[in-house]
Amino acid sequence: FEMKIDYDQLRKLYEDTCCTKNLQYSYGTAGFRTLAKDLDTVMFTTGILAVLRSLKLQGQYVGVMITASHNPYQDNGVKIVEPDGSMLLAAWEPYAMQLANAASFAATFDEFYAELVKLVEHEKIDLDTSAVAPHVVVGRDSRESSPFLLRCLTSTMASVFHAQVVDLGCVTTPQLHYVTNLSNRRQREDGHTTVATEQDYYSFFVEAFNELFTTYQIEKRLSVPKLFVDTANGIGGPQLKKLLASKDWAVPSDEIEIVNDKSDVPELLNFECGADYVKTNQRLPKGLSPSSPDSLYCSFDGDADRVVFYYVDPESKFHLLDGDKISTLFAKFLSQQLELANLRDSLKIGVVQTAYANGSSTTYIEDALHCPVSCTKTGVKHLHHEAATQYDIGIYFEANGHGTIIFSEKFHQTIESQLSKSQGNLLALNTLNCFAKLINQTVGDAISDMLAVLATLSILQMAPTDWDREYTDLPNKLVKCIVPDRSIFQTTDQERKLQNPAGLQTKIDSVIAKYPMGRSFVRASGTEDAVRVYAECEDPTKLDQFCNEIVEYVKSSV
Ligand code: G16
User: Fold this and answer.
1) 112 found inside a domain
2) What's the ipTM?
3) Residue 331 and residue 142: Cα distance in Å, rounded?
4) Phosphoacetylglucosamine mutase AMG1 domain: which residues (predicted)?
5) Whole-number Å distance between alpha carbons of 98 and 101
6) What is the pTM of this model?
7) Is 70 exceeded by the pLDDT of residue 192?
């Protein structure tokens, strides 16, 4: 076996780049994530891994996104995207960690090199790039640390591995997923060698939005007097503005107002604004004050892969329309359309949630919408997999606003065949067809989800209050608990029960039993150094006490 790469060149780049040493890196819920100043080494090795992944897959485009999403501005992170736009294959996550930790703990370059050779041999990767060159698409969010980290990431790609690297610049995470998927599709279907662009994204989603309104023969106007979009001072702001400036975007410009759009002021990112802030604190973000009662608001997170909606009633009370409400709105709409198209029996629609889903939403989906519900562990990759494998229309949303809908091959074939025969309810069939386009099926996407919600509300002629009234959330609370070592908190049953620390779950169960409709669980975060405690119960006046009792047990167990 021969490593057909320039050893000296790799060694020099390794020594110049990998300054952070003796730090344990772990590929968590959403890739590697930590303080930006500690990421040089892991960026270097992740760049190599992305190239290897592309070589393993016959040179297809593999995506790499530099982002720490909802985390504060001092953090950053990186994740690898498969050629079809999904998250890195789970079997490769351990490789990502082995390579990063080898570079972090190796006493010499040769120790790291030995680990690299082992991986290349194990996966039988041919490093002779004369026949097939690796292809990588890279993108980054608006963080100040990203340009430097991008250099660490890409340093070896072209020089050592002869990779073709396409830098999309600043884009949202879903745009990176979309462009990666489209570039490969184009290459496969019509031999295109040019990479897709951000512009393709805008054209595609604006067209899908317009098509849905045209199908319904309704005016391209929002059903609410105004939508305020809080873009968390992240990359979602400039990107949404570009979409709204597209020549075919027809909604009057005064109907959508973007706030918290200072993506050029680093410290403001996710600061007292954005989807995570609004969901956790259940209040308006900075920069917004209650306007007319019919107005609708929404918040993206820092890289625009999550969205939550909300409104303020005439009594100035804040109402959250979170990921659960988004999935129930889509489940209601799409099951109605299936019913109208007479396809309810042939296509299986279902909703995927995590333990964070409000108990009322689960009951509503099962009892009122008659749709099956699955529960998975936190992390988009788990929900995505379940939605893609169990349903023809798999709707998945985390309560925090992260989600999308996956339409199966059978769905597309069925709709296409009915439409080609002009059989059945054409309006419903066309609606299903257009709606499937409007959804970014590669990953949860704040922009695409927002457009799909706006279209659904317009078609169903629903005001925010109608949407909210479908079911009433149980009062709930989510708190972060800082502990010396969060890794001891190990869970089972889709993270709904603790296995460790020993005995803690029994204590939690004894607290839950005291509160009517009580439910609570504890899990270690995969993106922050904290343990999360979730609690919900019937009586809002007892919620704080309920949650505090659990927190006290957590604190005393470590
Ligand atoms: C990431 C994941 C989400 C997860 C969130 C919080 O979101 O992609 O699936 O819900 O972290 O995870 P945890 O509770 O483990 O910290 P994002 O938007 O930060 O990429």
Assistant:
1) yes
2) 0.95
3) 33
4) 194-308, 322-459
5) 5
6) 0.95
7) no
